[in-house]
Each structure stands twice: as structure tokens, then as C-alpha cells.
Amino acid sequence: MEYPITPHTEALELDLDNDDLGPIPMSAGSLDSDDYICLWDHCFKTYDDPEQLYMHMTNDHVGRKSTNNLCLTCHWEKCDYTTAKRDHITSHLRVHVPLKPFACEVCKIHS
After folding, report:
1. What 3-state class would DSSP assign to 36?
2. Torsion angle, alpha carbons of 26, 98, 54, 33, to 10
3. Which of 38, 41, 50, 52 could staple 99 via S-S, CB 3.0–4.6 A?
4. 1 pLDDT exceeds 90?
């Protein structure tokens, strides 16, 4: 089955005959466009905006060396990007989150 691709969803094929589907995330969002779902290694926590999701990913999943929980491999659904530096992995995470951090002061459009 195909679903429309929107800023918060991606095409998804489901085996609807499978009785054991469990939670079915759509990407960094869900069918309710106000929710953003974390697809990091079966996390599935939901957030109201992409900034909250991004902060969750960087704090809870990437972590920090100083707290002995630093993870430099992306465990987002079907991704295994690995890097040597924390700032590189946190920058990479933006490919999974519909987050546009810079707004034009004139027209307010995000880059």
C-alpha cells in the first residue's frame, strides 16, 4: 500500500496480513502531522515539533563522552552512518528530522 509523501511522511509498504505489526511509524512524523516519531532503534517516542525530536535524539541516543554514553553510529531506521566526532553525528541527524533552523528575517522562509 502506498501513502503520499509529505514533509512528515515517506512512502511505506505494509503487509496488512501480518497480525504482529506492532507500532507502525511513518518517518520523523506520523499520519497526524502534529506528531514526530523517533525511529531510532525501535524508540517510537513522539514529540510535538521537530526541534523536540532532534533534542531527544542528540541527548538520549547520541549522548556525550563525559557521561560515558556517546554513540557515534546512527541507529535511525535503515541507517548505519558512523562518524568519529559527536558534532558530525548530530549534524547528520538533521537528514532524518524536518528541521530548518535558519529563517529569513524578511520573508520568514526557512533554508
Report:
1. strand
2. -50
3. 50
4. no
Residue 56 is given by DSSP the state: H
Residues forming beta bridges with residue 46, ordered by sequence position: 37
Question: In the chain, pLDDT over 70 holds for what percent of residues?
Answer: 60
Q: Which DSSP string corresponds to 66-103?
A: GGT----B--BTT---B-SSHHHHHHHGGGTS-----B
Q: Rounded distance, CA 60 to CA 36, Å?
A: 16
CB 63 within 8 A of CB 71: yes
SS3 59: helix
Q: What is the pTM of this model?
A: 0.62
